[in-house]
Each structure stands twice: as structure tokens, then as C-alpha cells.
């Protein structure tokens, strides 16, 4: 109970006059707004400084930049127990950002809380529901028509509860945040796993599930396990074909998809200054693929340049005054250090099927021949939240312009996704978009599109083996086009453009020649482009909706017959007993990302309707019993059928169930639907070798038990036909393992130990049935 001791008081305050615990603090040296859209909410560098000084005195050692920003946002810096990798911190984030697919469930949960207004500045960004079909304008019109009910819900909920609303067509959430809301030293949480993009502007920006966002919007301190800090020291400078993307592709190859779990990756060293602000954002963005809590760069002149160009000179000047708190202390210590010499770094391309399978571009063709990966590139795709900046588009256009000069166009299909309306308008004005069209490209809407599976792909049939190359961040099986035989590789936009022109993985632009229309051979020159436009950015169309000052008359309607939206019912409380005779729904073999647990693509339309979207539960996971996806044995009927159908059968018949998983279960997206769905369909526990950070937290928030084998080899002791009993819940306590009794069909039993990372607050969530239930208990 202690961690929530002040909650009732804070909720009572929130129910009265709207209070921003972050923005109401005025800097003593200057009064600078957090953004143009919130002129009365101010940056609180003076409080950051005060908290840092308190913690530094307590710890009596130099601090990393990550520690300065995180500890600078502690709710109680004088008394908070601080130990990297062990204690849970209670933090006060500055703001919340939500994309439209996750905002639906987040706002439905906030509505359930009964609070009248959000307690911190918050925004909703419409970027996930726009499907790429034929091109930007037509696709956007179609999306507005198809998703009208959802967009109306988000717009009216935003207006009712004080949340800013970025309409469809605005751009991708992370680009909008970088252009308008991120700043050095900010602590921002976002309901998308690539929220760390803001680390490119010196902020600690962390991806979370919607329930975490609800806590912060409700004015409750947000809990985070005290992160370890991995230092990446950069020396030398980027040049030639080597880009910022190659830094994170290299790091992913070193750390793998789980090597950053529980840690913040902090870049430092003399090589940092050779990277543009948007390039730093690219590196931080894809840090999600190594499981990192977030990534961050120290404040420098490249960030100041970007702030100035995006109309925030006042923030840059203020950051200059507080710069000592926006860089690491000399002599600070990291838990692990990786050194990368940018002078020696070569262009990389990672994949297929996992973002940590790293290859130098020079070697990938040979590796593809050896492994039987298709060499012919069917589609090249540039853009996404990772690589859609003005500099990215300029470098790609520089490559395309050379091909056009020799009479060539792309041999592969080629698509371009601008990161925001501002980027789209500016690259149209400056001619980049036209060059990319002339080389064979199609400019898509300012949205996520194919990166998250919103792609109505027509050039292949499902099951057809093929290769695509993207500048995206994630390349799990079937992620982009729902085809498990699509071999997706991720690399920089300029390498994608060069490979799309050549049409094959065998092409290395550093050494290989192309043949022009005149029959003469030529070599592409390494691209060069401005990191920012020489003139001002063109803002394009105004796509922002301010929340009204008076929202008392605002209605938020959810039809009881809607197939897209559904009001939430509270989950059942724990009955005070051990979980006996749990049926195993599925024992998962190998990689199981949140895409496997709750697929995106066509399922995105049900993100606001828990019962409908639960029909995709674990349909991508491989069942160890038969090696198939979406085929599990019903323990009662002994028939094999789809996973969701089997789960519904168990729920209908009062049979509680458990999932058995492998390593890094739940890696990838922050989508909390991967936790809501098993809870909704009767699941009680997920037992794995290890979890990805966000998914583990999401499971706890919804009242499930994420547990890990004390001995990973015990995974092999459990068979899909067994039943499990989880014992020791009456004495459930932090650090105390639980007991699991494995009951085999032949009557024999085995007992194993299960570890957990629950703290006292999280145990309260479990007992109440969910974190939201616990909030309501305390509120009343």
C-alpha cells in the first residue's frame, strides 16, 4: 500500500482544478513554453537542476546523462531508493503522446477512471490507420472515410479530457514529437515502442502501454525499474555511404534483440558531433529493436540548430543556460561500454526476419546466395518514423538524381513515406519528391503505412518467396505485408534507393557499377544533402485540433453495437487462492513478438474493441506440439483448432489457462492488446524464459502473472498436454519465487520454481484484477 499512499490526495486534486505538476513550475531564469501549442505550460529546468543536485549529493558520484534526466524527474528525490537494475523509481513525466491505434484503448481506460481532465500535457496522433494502396491523397481520403467512427471518438475524447488531437495526414507520431514537443531533458512517455526517437533531441522518451499512459494522465507517479546504462562511445565521423542508420544496425548486431533490456543506451564521445539531430533520432528510434528502455544523445550544437530551424530558439537558448545538466558528468560510469569508430563503420543491412541479423552491404549478396534468400528485390520502401527526415529524403533524392542523369529508373517498385505534413510540404517545395517520383517512386500518405503492415500489396501472392528492402526499423516475419515468405531487410534510405535502382541484393554502391541507358557503365557517388532546408520549413496544412478551454458540453459517444469501439468492463479480482490445474493454451516455440501475439495490419481496425481484436490472439505464434501457427489442441475435445477459438472455449467452460513462452517473449511493439487479449479470454499467467520490458509491464497492468523459469531448462519439462498449478500466491511478495507443480497425464508430477519481478504496487494490481481496478479502489 505504501507506494500509493499519496494517490488519493492527488486524485482529489485532479478532480478539482486542472493541475499540471510538470508545466506549472516556472523556470527562474526564463519562462519558456514547452511547445507552441501549450503557451501556458513551461519547461521546468530549475526543478530538474534541483532534483539532480539532491541525488548527486546522495549518491556522491558523477551521473550519466540518462541518470540526470531520469532522477531529475523523481517524485521524491530525497528519499527514493536508487539502485540500477533493481529498485523501482517513481517518476513524474512531463508529457504523454499516443498514436491512434493505442490511444483508443488508452482513452477508453482513462474514461473508465472517472477523472475529468488529464493531469499532464497529452496528445493523440493519427498515423496508424491509413493503409497504403495507390498514393498519398487517395489513401488518406479512403482512411478518413473508413475510420470516421474511430477518428471522431479520438477527437471528441481529446476535446472532452484536454488532449491535443493531430488529425489524419499530420504525420507519424515520432516525427511530430521531434518537430514540436521533444526538447533536451524532457521525460516523455508514449504509447508506441519507437517513442525513444525523441532521444535524438536529448530527451528521455520511453515507449509504454496504454495503462501506463493512463497513470501519468491521471496524475499518478509512474513506476519504472531503475535502468542500467549502456554507454556507446562514438569516435571518428560519418562519411560517404555510411549513415546514422548504420550505427544502430551495427549496435543491434552486437547487442541482439534483447541485449538492451532494462537499460538506457547513452551515446557519447567525439563522434556524436558528426551526426545530425534527425540522424541521432534515427539511432534512438531503432534502439527499441535491442530491447532498450530508451536511448539518448547529449545536448549539442546539432540539436540547437534543429530547435532553431523548427521555431524553438527560446528552448535552445534555455538549454544552453542549463547545458551542464543536459550532458553526462565527466568520469561517470556505465554498466557496459561499446566503442564504435565511425571512420571504419561500413554501410549495413540487417535481416531477414529479425533486426539484429547484421551484414555489411558488401557481404549481404553472398550471404543471400548461401542461405537461399531471394536476390531479386521486389520493392524498396523508404520513410517510416525511423528514416523520414528532410536529410533522409535529400540523400535518397541525391542517389535518384544520379540514376536519372544516366537514363535509369528503379528496377524494383519504390515507395516514399514522408514523416510529417511539414516534411511532405517541404520536400515538394524543394523538388525532392518530384525527383523520387521520376525515378519510379510513389509518394504515400504521411503515416506509418507498410512499416506496420498497413499495405495493400498486390505484386505477390501470400506464400510467395520474395525480398523487400526498407528503411524501417522492424522486419519480423509477415510484419509488412502479412506474407510469412517475404524476406524483409532494413537499411538506410540511400542504400534502399540504390538497391531499388539496381534491383538486386548483389549490388554494393561503394564498389559496383550500373549501366546507363547509353550502355556506358557508371558508379554512384556517395550522396550528400542538407540536414535541414536552407529556407524555413513549409508547415503545409494545419492539422492540429486544440482542446477547448471549456469542454463541459462535449459528448463522447460509443455505440453499444459498434464493431470498432467497445467500452471496457473491469476484469475480475483475484479470488485469494492459488491457481490450480491451469490448462496450457499453447507452448510457443522460438521468437514470439507482439506481432505474433496480437497482429497489426488488417487487425488495426479493431484496436478499440477488445472482444473483436481478441480474435487474433497468438495466431502468429508457433505451437511446439505440431510446428504450426494458429493450431492448438483443445484439451477437452482433443481437436486442433485456432488459438482464439480454443481460448474462447476454455473461457466459456470455466477453464483457466496459461501460455508457455521462449526467450524475450513479447519483444517489439508496445501494444497492450497483447496483454489485454489473453486476460479477456481467460488467461491467468504467461511463463517464459525471459520477457521484453514493455510487454512484461503490460501483463502486470492487466492483472496477469508474467513469470520466468528459475532454471530456463525447465521449459523443456512442460508439455502442451500437462496441467500446471501455481502456488504461493497467498504469500506473494517481492523477490519471493512462486512454486509451479507440473501435472503430467500419466499421473506423475514435477515441481519447479518460477521467478517474478513484481514490487508491492504491482502485487496490488494483481490482487485487484488490474492496475485500473486498483486506481478505482483508491479513488473511492
Automatic annotation (TrEMBL):
Reaction equation(s) it catalyzes: citrate = D-threo-isocitrate
Pfam families: Aconitase, Aconitase_C
Domain Aconitase/3-isopropylmalate dehydratase large subunit alpha/beta/alpha per the UniProt entry, residue ranges: 67-503
E.C. numbers: 4.2.1.3
Any single biological process term in GO: tricarboxylic acid cycle
Ranges annotated as spanning the membrane: none
Cited SUPFAM superfamilies: Aconitase iron-sulfur domain, LeuD/IlvD-like
This protein's pathway: Carbohydrate metabolism; tricarboxylic acid cycle; isocitrate from oxaloacetate: step 2/2
GO MF annotations in UniProt: 4 iron, 4 sulfur cluster binding; aconitate hydratase activity; metal ion binding
Family: Belongs to the aconitase/IPM isomerase family.
Function: Catalyzes the isomerization of citrate to isocitrate via cis-aconitate.
Protein name according to UniProt: Aconitate hydratase, mitochondrial
Amino acid at each position: 500500500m505504501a507506494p500509493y499512499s499519496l494517490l488519493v490526495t492527488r486524485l482529489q486534486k485532479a478532480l478539482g482544478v486542472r493541475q499540471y505538476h510538470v508545466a506549472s513550475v516556472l523556470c527562474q531564469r526564463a519562462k519558456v513554453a514547452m511547445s507552441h501549442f501549450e503557451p501556458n505550460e513551461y519547461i521546468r529546468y530549475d526543478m530538474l537542476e534541483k532534483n539532480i543536485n539532491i541525488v548527486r549529493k546522495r549518491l556522491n558520484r558523477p551521473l550519466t546523462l540518462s541518470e540526470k534526466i531520469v532522477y531529475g524527474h523523481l517524485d521524491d528525490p530525497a528519499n527514493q531508493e536508487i539502485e540500477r537494475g533493481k529498485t523501482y523509481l517513481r517518476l513524474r513525466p512531463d508529457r504523454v503522446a499516443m498514436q491512434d491505434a493505442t490511444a483508443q484503448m488508452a482513452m477508453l481506460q482513462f474514461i473508465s477512471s472517472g477523472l475529468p481532465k488529464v493531469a499532464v500535457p497529452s496528445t493523440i496522433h493519427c498515423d496508424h490507420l491509413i493503409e497504403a494502396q495507390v498514393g498519398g491523397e487517395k489513401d488518406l481520403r479512403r482512411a478518413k472515410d473508413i475510420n470516421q467512427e474511430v477518428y471522431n471518438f479520438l477527437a471528441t475524447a481529446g476535446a472532452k479530457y484536454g488532449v491535443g488531437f493531430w488529425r489524419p495526414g499530420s504525420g507519424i507520431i515520432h516525427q511530430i514529437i521531434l518537430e514540436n514537443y521533444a526538447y533536451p531533458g524532457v521525460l516523455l512517455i508514449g504509447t508506441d515502442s519507437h517513442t525513444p526517437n525523441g532521444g535524438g533531441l536529448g530527451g528521455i522518451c520511453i515507449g509504454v502501454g496504454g495503462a501506463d499512459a493512463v497513470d501519468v494522465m491521471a496524475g499518478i507517479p509512474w513506476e519504472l525499474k531503475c535502468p542500467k546504462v549502456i554507454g556507446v562511445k562514438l569516435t571518428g565521423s560519418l562519411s560517404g555511404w555510411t549513415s546514422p542508420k548504420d550505427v544502430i544496425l551495427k549496435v543491434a548486431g552486437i547487442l541482439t534483440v534483447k541485449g538492451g533490456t532494462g537499460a538506457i543506451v547513452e551515446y557519447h564521445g567525439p563522434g556524436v558531433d558528426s551526426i545530425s539531430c534527425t540522424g541521432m533520432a534515427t539511432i534512438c528510434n531503432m534502439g527499441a529493436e535491442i530491447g532498450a528502455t530508451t536511448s539518448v544523445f547529449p545536448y549539442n550544437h546539432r540539436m540547437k540548430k534543429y530547435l532553431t530551424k523548427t521555431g524553438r530558439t527560446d528552448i535552445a537558448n534555455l538549454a544552453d543556460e542549463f547545458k551542464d545538466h543536459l550532458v553526462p558528468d565527466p568520469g561517470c560510469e556505465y554498466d557496459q561500454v561499446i566503442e564504435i569508430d565511425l571512420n571504419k563503420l561500413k554501410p549495413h543491412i540487417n535481416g531477414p526476419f529479425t533486426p539484429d541479423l547484421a551484414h555489411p552491404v558488401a557481404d549481404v549478396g553472398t550471404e543471400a546466395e548461401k542461405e537461399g534468400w531471394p536476390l531479386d528485390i521486389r520493392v524498396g520502401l523508404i520513410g517510416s518514423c525511423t528514416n523520414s527526415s528532410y536529410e533522409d529524403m535529400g540523400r535518397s533524392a541525391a542517389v535518384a538524381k544520379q540514376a536519372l542523369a544516366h537514363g535509369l529508373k528503379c528496377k524494383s517498385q519504390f515507395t516514399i513515406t514522408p514523416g510529417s505534413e511539414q516534411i511532405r510540404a517541404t520536400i515538394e517545395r524543394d523538388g525532392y519528391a518530384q525527383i523520387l517520383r521520376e525515378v519510379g517512386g510513389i509518394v504515400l500518405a504521411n503515416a506509418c503505412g507498410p512499416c506496420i503492415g498497413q499495405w495493400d500489396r498486390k505484386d505477390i501472392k501470400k506464400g510467395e518467396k520474395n525480398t523487400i528492402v526498407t528503411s524501417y526499423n522492424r522486419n519480423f516475419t509477415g510484419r509488412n505485408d502479412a506474407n510469412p515468405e517475404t524476406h524483409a531487410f532494413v537499411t538506410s534510405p540511400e542504400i534502399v534507393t540504390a538497391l531499388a535502382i539496381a534491383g538486386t541484393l548483389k549490388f554494393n554502391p561503394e564498389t559496383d557499377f550500373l549501366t546507363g541507358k547509353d550502355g556506358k557503365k557508371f558508379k554512384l557517388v556517395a550522396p550528400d544533402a542538407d540536414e535541414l532546408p536552407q529556407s524555413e520549413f513549409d508547415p503545409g496544412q494545419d492539422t492540429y485540433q486544440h482542446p477547448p478551454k471549456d469542454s463541459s458540453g462535449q459528448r463522447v459517444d460509443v455505440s453499444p453495437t459498434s464493431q470498432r469501439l467497445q467500452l471496457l468492463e473491469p476484469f475480475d479480482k483475484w479470488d485469494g487462492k492459488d491457481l490450480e490445474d491451469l490448462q496450457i493454451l499453447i507452448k510457443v516455440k522460438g521468437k514470439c513478438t507482439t506481432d505474433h501475439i496480437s497482429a497489426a495490419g488488417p487487425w488495426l481496425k479493431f484496436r478499440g474493441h477488445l472482444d473483436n481484436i481478441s480474435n487474433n490472439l497468438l495466431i502468429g505464434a508457433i505451437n511446439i506440439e505440431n510446428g504450426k501457427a494458429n493450431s492448438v489442441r483443445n484439451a477437452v475435445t482433443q481437436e486442433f483448432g485456432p488459438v482464439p477459438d480454443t481460448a474462447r472455449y476454455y473461457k466459456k467452460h470455466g477453464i483457466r489457462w496459461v501460455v508457455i513462452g521462449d526467450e524475450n517473449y513479447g519483444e517489439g511493439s508496445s501494444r497492450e492488446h497483447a496483454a489485454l487479449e489473453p486476460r479477456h479470454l481467460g488467461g491467468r499467467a504467461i511463463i517464459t524464459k525471459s520477457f521484453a520490458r514493455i510487454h512484461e509491464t503490460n501483463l502486470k497492468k492487466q492483472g496477469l502473472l508474467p513469470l520466468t523459469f528459475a532454471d530456463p531448462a525447465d521449459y523443456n519439462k512442460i508439455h502442451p498436454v500437462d496441467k500446471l498449478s501455481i502456488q504461493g500466491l497467498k504469500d506473494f511478495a517481492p523477490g519471493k519465487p512462486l512454486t509451479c507443480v507440473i501435472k503430467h497425464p500419466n499421473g506423475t508430477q514435477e515441481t519447479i520454481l518460477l521467478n517474478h519481478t513484481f514490487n508491492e504496487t504491482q502485487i496490488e494490481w494483481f490482487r485487484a484484477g488490474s492496475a485500473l481496478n486498483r486506481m478505482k479502489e483508491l479513488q473511492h
